[in-house]
Amino acid sequence: MSSALTRVAYAYDRLRAYPPEVAGRIATAMGSALQVRGEEPMLLELGVGTGRIALPLIARGYRYIALDVNPAMLEVLRQKAAGVMRKVRLLQADARAIPLPEESVHGVIVVHLWHLLPDWPKALAEALRVLKPGGVLLEGWDQVEAEPECRLQERWRALVEAEGVEVERGRHRRRLAEVEEALKRLGLKPKTRQVVAWREERTLREALEALQDRLYSFTQAVPEEVHAQVMPRLWAWAEGEFGGLDQSFRVEKSFYLRTSRLG
Length: 263
Ligand code: SAM
What we know:
The model has no long low-confidence stretch (mean pLDDT 93). The radius of gyration is 19 Å and the shape is globular. The protein starts with a helix and ends with a strand. 31% of the residues are buried. The chain is of the alpha/beta class. It has helices spanning 3-16, 20-34, 54-59, 71-80, 120-130, 147-162, 171-185, 204-212, 224-242; strands at 42-46, 63-68, 88-92, 105-111, 131-145, 191-203, 248-261. Helix 3 (54-59) links the parallel strand 1 and strand 2 (63-68).
């Protein structure tokens, strides 16, 4: 596996990590939504990444199938889960063609994946196919508010668009609404709630590095040569605008969970 892929997977892991108490609250909310009696629940996560949702659930003893298309993400997860791997199956596969029998899992977890799949209805159909009757689809997402970071991202977008490349933003939110509509059309009753809200600190340098490493999906469609051209300009702009990159700013975060139970 290329070391560049693994480096990005580790960078992704650092940027997205939850504080332990937040990870615990999310695991508790997901675990209690399962309502399985008499059997050991089996969970499947689509697009598991490096396991920030998976690991606390695995540590609590759930049987877990961790599916991702990217082997570098699974490799980081494998290393992090080394002590608690007994009940985990790592599955390198595409969420649009899940290599599992129908009605085989009690819960399917999907966090920050739908917006990456133009043909998301295939993955949704697959998620519902592998769920047992009475099983639950658990969709989660983060909401992040940070004014300086927004300004950096908007400046990055302006610089990219000045090079003639359009940047699409807001796809994640739109996709969540589309999936909700699809679930309702299927007769399901998705219920959404905020599970936890918290604050973090981040430096401007860290925010710039996240852009530089293209850790956000809205940066990933921009051609490498354009990205490489605009990043030095963005660093220079940020130095001038904020008068130094090591000051930290506050990031307000929250996690939402949407549950849909099969009849
Ligand atoms: N759910 C994790 C989290 O919240 O930390 C990871 C989210 S990350 C934005 C999206 C993940 O989905 C990546 O690990 C990526 O490799 C994976 N992915 C993208 N397309 C996929 C596909 N077609 N099938 C399975 N996984 C996919």
